[in-house]
Please model this.
Amino acid sequence: MDRAECTWFNKSCAKYFNVSFVPYNRTQRVVKEDFQLLIDMGRDLMIDVQVYKMMSNEYRFFPVTFTANACAEYIKNSFSFRDSLTRGSNLRPCNLKKGVYYIRNEIPDFSRYPPHLPTGSYKLVHQYLFRSMSCAQVDFYGRIVDKPIDWKNIPKSVGL
Model:
């Protein structure tokens, strides 16, 4: 992952919404996110994801899109979602009340993602919805690169 940004948020849902990738050490960056909810969402947080791929110097529609209930995916531990939130966060998507939430020093577990994605630069647009109301949009930018020939000899701390 290269960077993340909250492009907009609904001020009737949240007082503030910050997300970024910050340096953890010389070779690894981690997710840092904090926001304050102004409404009780309970189990009704939906995440709408749309993927764009960099082609001809611009991000173009890529045919991967889905909408998921955050609580249901948390319970199923999809993409190691529950494991990462229990380590460095006070966020529990099955009981979202008014208040301040954070995610700190979380390294995404890319081993739980689909294995044969095409190489290239991508933009993932996450839109957070409460019932039919849009609450925030977070854009993640990253790259998928080929593994080096001697990828088994690279230490895990490198972060490839």
